[in-house]
Amino acid sequence: MTAIGAQAQHLLAHRRPQKSFFETLIRSLIILCVAIAVVLSSISICDGRWLFVRGQLLGLWHFCTVSNDSVLKCVTDLSLAQVEGLSVGVIPIRSMVSFAVVVAIFGLELLMVSQVCDDANARRKWAMGSVLILISFLLSATGVLSFSILVKDHLTFTGFTLTYWCEFIAAFLFFLNGISGLHINSLTHLRSGAGKI
Question: CB of 85 within 8 A of CB of 193?
Answer without folding.
Answer: no
